[in-house]
Amino acid sequence: MARPLRIEYPGAFYHVTCRGNERKTIFRDDSDRYTFLDMLAASLETFTVSLHGYVLMNNHFHLIIETHEANLGKLMQRFNTAYTVYYNRCHNRNGHLYQGRYKAILIDADEYLLELSRYVHLNPVRIRKFSRFPIDEKKTILESYRWSSYDGYTRRRQRQPFMTYDLILTMMGDGDTPTLRRQYKRFVMSGITDDLSGTYWNDIKWQMLKGTEDFADRIYATFIDRKTPPSSIPLSPRRTLTIDDIAGLVAAVCDVDKDDLYRKQSTSPVARSLFMDLCCAYLNARLSMTEIGRELGNVSVAALSHNNRRLRERMDNDTTIRRLHEEIKKKLEKH
Q1: 19 with 102, same domain?
Q2: Residue 158 Cα to chain centre, angstroms
Q3: What pTM, to 2 d.p., does this model score?
Q4: Which of 115, 99, 103, 6 is nearest to 52 (CA)?
Q5: pLDDT for 65-94, tens place per residue?
Q6: For residue 66, what pLDDT is reported?
């Protein structure tokens, strides 16, 4: 059987999985898991990639990844190599750690991202030894599992700086509120039934895509058939805003001068930080991070990534900034 294609483009979402060679363990202890997450965080920053979810199991892992540039292959090559070198050195072994190449399913995010997050977060209770456990016991196991992003979705204090939580949560409703987090928890827990287990993989197309027929047709025409110029096919119709649209809405909500948002030495640094973050989030389907940085006053990709990470740390502790961010996002979604 031929290997599935690796389709890459700015703004793509992937379900990435990797399994240990011969299904053997890839995490022997918590030190391995902490090192894995540290290396993952560093790689995400280097390649300006967003992580929307993860789970670490004993012999495999799942990642929900959004690439702001067409660089999934570069990210995974560097990351998997770095962890393999660490693991082999630490545990005095040689050879391949993983079973073949990583698996990457291209996701139609508008239709399946929320479902994917539930599938990933339910992995700890889908292993065979828990199959006959009562549902309430499975819920207890899931809530106590340390090595996934689930905790951060349901409890703000457990959030990790390398994770992006807001996109999936906004698919449940408006704002990052306790009510919304409880709603997400109910959504995930509702999947602990025999009815839902295993159904996620039922409609994967061409071994590499999960999406609607329309999404599949556009991907086929752009990357497989290649008869249609890629620039003429909107792969991410959800993001159609211009940078000036975003500037106008940020200026209106924050009550600042729109032109000032484009200046590196802005007199409104909070609004400028919000503007940079939202440009990265809403323009990445059409512009690379380098191009976005150029539009924002020749800001480097590293500086954009640093700003976005620092902003999320500030929003965790500053309700005013978090409220402004959520208000602007609501307006952007309706624009």
Answers
A1: yes
A2: 17
A3: 0.70
A4: 115
A5: 999 888 999 999 999 999 999 999 999 998
A6: 93
